[in-house]
Amino acid sequence: MWHLRMLGHLMLIFLLCEADSTCPTESNPLTVHPPEVIGEYGKTVILNCTSTELEYEEMYWRSGTTTSEKEDELDFVGWSVPLSDWHVTAKCVIKLNNSAECSKDAEITVYKNPVKVNLFPTKHTNSAVVGRPYELQCDIREVAPVKNLIVRWYINNQIIKTDSFNNTSKTPVNTFSTSKVVLRKDQHGVQLRCEAQLDFGRSGPQLPAMYATYNVSVHYAPELKNPDNIVVYEGDDITLTCGVEANPPPAFIWTRDGVNMLENTNKLNVIQIKASATYSCVATNYLGSVTKIINVRVIANPATPAAIPTTEASTKKGCPLLLMPAEAVVRFGDPVSVNCSTTDVAHFEGMGWEAPFGGTGFEKSSLVTWKVENLEEWTIESKCYVTLNDSQCSVKPDITVYKNPVNVDLFPTKNIHAAVEGKPYELRCDIQEVAPVKNLIVRWYINNQIIKTDSFNNTSKTPVNTFSTWKVVLRKDQHGAQLRCEAQLEFGTSGPQLPAMYATYNVSVHYAPELRNNTDNDIVDVDEGDDVTLTCEAEGNPPPVFNWTRDGVNMLENMNNLSIIQVTSNATYSCKATNYLGNITKIINVRVIPRAAAPAAMPDPGATTKKGCPLVLMPAEAVVRFGDPVSVNCSTTDVAHFEGMGWEAPFGGTGFEKSSLVTWKVENLEEWTIESKCYVNLNDSQCSVKPDITVYKNPVNVDLFPTKNIHAAVEGKPYELRCDIQEVAPVKNLIVRWYINNQIIKTDSFNNTSKTPVNTFSTWKVVLRKDQHGAQLRCEAQLEFGTSGPQLPAMYATYNVSVHYAPELRNNTDNDIVDVDEGDDVTLTCEAEGNPPPVFNWTRDGVNMLENMNNLSIIQVTSNATYSCKATNYLGNITKIINVRVIPRAAAPAAMPDPGATTKKGCPLVLMPAEAVVRFGDPVSVNCSTTDVAHFEGMGWEATFGGTGFENSSLVTWKVEKVQEWTIESKCYVTLIDSQCSVKPDITVYKTPDAVTVSLDSSPMVEGTEYKLNCDIINVAPQEKLQVKWYKGSEMVHKQRFSDPIVTPVNVSSTLMATSSRNDDRALFKCVAELHLGPKGPELVPAAESSPYTAVVYYKPQIQNCPGSYRGVEHEFHMDSLICKADGNPEPTLQWYYQGKRINASEPLTRAQSGEYTAKFVNSLGSISTTVHITIEYPPSFNCDKSYEVQADGKLQNECVPQGEPKPDIIWYKDGKQMSTPQYWRKHDSGSYSLKATNNHGTANHMLYVDVLYAPVFRKGSYTLEVTLDANVTFDCHAEGNPDPVIRWNYTSADNVMETTGGRQKNISITGATSTNAGVYVCVATNKVGSVAKAVTLVMKGKTRQFPRDIIWILIIILILITITILIVLYCSRRKKQRKYSLVSQSMPMTTKANGVQA
């Protein structure tokens, strides 16, 4: 039974353990401060955990799998938590002595303010229409957590809508809000704004709102302002105004009594009106039209009284009117006003302004004002008039209305992007929509040096487009120089000083090849059998192509270096450097220094392989950027056997040519795999060679970041980074180098053989030291093509790393001895450093001192003690022991007690604490005790508040519930038998600021200008303890201390001066006011920080992401769909130009619109442009004839090539079977063919007939024919050809010769040949391809000798007899066979057969 009892005990123990491991139900001893943390991603927060239970085993923090240093003595444990994980958690854990475990979580929210907010109309419609919904979208990028995001919509600062989000994601997301608004016409130009703000309630951080604005144009149909009926004197002039307003501005049509007046402005000038009439004005825009009727009634002009002087007379005396200002320069659309007053009050009756807008009535006031809120006319017809007792006169102000250029563009006039050294290179500066042009000045610069100034004589007052040109002659040392044109309106010193608008152009200067060392003839000595490399030191732009010869023989080398292996004999080498501007030749004589004779070598049978194919490519290798031009020359060295040559290529190929030099050329290389070859036909063979073409693309972007999103490395542990390289080709030529502070550490290459652009990456595990904290890590990505290839710039990214390490003692000693005189004060220092900075804990003989600074101050040391300092961060801790030894003072003489002797020994009072730092309004208490009990009579506290009486106790306490005085006057005194003394505690009273705010002197900031930020700290004390820290983001940029010893609360200010840059835009500036109250101050430095101030920096555009080339589909692609972005503030607008003209970027493009497009980003501070080569793709189509003629062994003169992009693949079919594409047509290839063209966008088919023409060919050549006299003879002439040849005979005619035709041949027949028929008969066959001839030579021969007539008859009789005998024999044989058959016929019928065929 013992085992059953043992099992019961084990179960009981297990149950008890389970019960003890839970937290006591009555209370959790843990308190977390702060209980809820809201922090910015990437920053660090400090958490404290305090326990009310002092008897425990250990206490620590846990976050994920990481734990803090475990505490087993103190009642609190602190931890610094990096907010580098969006799902970070922190739990404080305590294990009690009874094995119970308690924990408490700190609520941590990690946030990230939006990176950018963008506002735009959803349908890309830049104008709203009155009364119709207009929808906008507010894009918010990379914000977290989105559930705390609030989006507010405003019209002119009036809130109209608020949006919130339900997404519970903790990581950054991109989101958006939309708003539909219905606008009125009086809201034209209104500013719409969306604000995105993370809202964490009143107790959370008050983060700034990120916002974007959009000024909307409101369109509406024309509307009448007021109807008109006008009365006018006969013969007067009058101007009628069509008082109509609309947006867009309407077009006008005027009629008079139904007759068109051919006037299309809003005014109609009628000169010397004679009769009443009805005028009609029709105003129209795309939203509608309206008609205004003006009835003009003409009345007779009364005679002018003779007594009243005329207006002209008054002008002689001078008109008594004063304009203020008399002249004004006003921007179109801005307000303007002019005061008019009279100096002749004695004769004054009244005055007023006559003007088409802003006029006044006839007023009795001696001061009238012409005022226009928005000046939107270019010609100002306003005048101030005055009526005096005996006259009337008027004056006109001189108003100049201006408009700064909308855009300035600079480009070469002939679209040639490179200048040639020493030749004029013309540029054109286009200035768009500027007025008045007569005030325009255009200045031209080279690298900030002014070269030329242009002005204009055009007197137009309305905006015009104009230009200035400049022919400049550049030197080669000015390659890459920046050319600039500045356009500026100038109105003199008294007018507005307007900014110059400018455009820049970096020019490439081309020049012919030149030798660098200025010697064109070198001598190189080399030992026999050694290798040598010859260098052709020539430079040019574009870089030259090189050609080497040896003693006049081409070396087939096109690089600037020529490597010669085992030189054996003297030779003269020639290097010719050529570009399209010229060439230069360098001669290098190689002299061989003989060595001692060596044994004769056997000839190398493989040496003949050096001859190979007799073709030379120039260059044989080329490295070309995608989209750039390329050309390769191909020539033959075997002219003796040469028949013809050419290039076969999917693009840029040539036909079969008789020239010994053919060129493959492509204007824009837009294929990654090049399949081109040069072939040559020799008498007895054919061969070909291929150039080695490498097409490259530099990386679009390089990015560097830690792989695990951990922003700090730990000393001695691997820290992995990743370098992302985007869109690079070919990746096998990519080299990635890693650096620490410019020292190269690692190099990576790639084996991927892909020729098209790819995204790739390189990683690096680095182990860092603590002295490398803050080091810059860098990865560089560079395409390398060797010394002969292009030297491309490296693309790079950097990362500054923080290195964390455990605390270490600076002086390397962990046990110090400090000697101190009895009664003296001493300060102990714990010289430990670490990253993050350690937290310190002091003990005295094992008792906690409640001090967490690195210094410990001890007042009036009286006894030896052992002090321990423990420095801790999350990576570890270190302890330093300091033994304090007290040196006793000498005893005083015993005779007479000296009342002042206590001051030498020190007053035997101990204050605990001797120093205290108290917040205003908090309680404070100080214990005072005596160490001289033998002579003690009594003690107490003297104080303005909290004092005690004289007490016999050796311990008295000064205590105040609320400190409400800034200066503390309290002291502890003791009365001894022979003396009295006192000590004062050092009490510092502090107060944190009521408010801390940041403001800017002027807004907004402009890049490159100095700005001033003010930090106002309200009601803080004491000032001398105040320290203000300025932060830009999380980086401290400035610190200021204050030294004024005022102890009462004051208001102070701190200033931050800096020069703004675009990187400061949307940067968050804040100031933190800290009270550094010393080691006796609070554990956490009292501080107050301002709400972040969001800087708005205006800067001109800078292109961020825009491809160099792009391919789109016809009728689908439009420029608005191309991702081309620029950064700028105000947000730049994108304008697209094609062939120098601005285009509607929303219209789809067609195949005819492929080419270079210019993207121009413009804001109020400037513009920047880049070019994009657009290729429009479209399906194949044929535009070919239905039939072709071609000569045999030739090529079609007009090849049937389909149109399409990408270039279609063509398949030829004949009789339904696929065949290879014909290169040369043979004479039997005539027939019908089917062509099928295919590319990515479709297929096209075409039928054609090819008729192969060839010259006539005789079946039989010339021959000789012998003919007997009197004989008859016939011979023919037959030839094949296409088209069918025409055949004719050339011979000497005779009566017995006749020509006959049979089919496609022509015969000659001779009857009774005679000697005159002998001779040469020539047959000629001709068609349009050519003609051929052959000869038949007719030779006559005499008759043979005749046999006697009798003999001939005898022979005939013998022949007849033989024939009869044979017939008889055959008959007899047949009869015998018939008898044999009849024997069988009685029993079986038979059917006879002859040779197996039925008879």
Automatic annotation (TrEMBL):
Membrane topology: Single-pass type I membrane protein
Entry keyword set: Cell adhesion, Disulfide bond, Glycoprotein, Immunoglobulin domain, Membrane, Repeat, Signal, Transmembrane, Transmembrane helix
GO CC annotation: membrane
Gene Ontology BP, a term: cell-cell adhesion
Compartment(s): Membrane
Any one Pfam family match given in the protein's UniProt record, by short name: Ig_3
SMART domains: IG, IGc2
Predominant location category: membrane
Keyword Transmembrane helix: yes
Segment forming the signal sequence: 1-19
Domain Ig-like stretches: 222-297, 397-503, 513-591, 691-797, 807-885, 993-1074, 1101-1175, 1256-1339
GO molecular function: integrin binding
Membrane-crossing residue ranges in chain numbering: 1351-1372
Family to which this protein belongs: Belongs to the immunoglobulin superfamily. ICAM family.
Protein's recorded name: Ig-like domain-containing protein
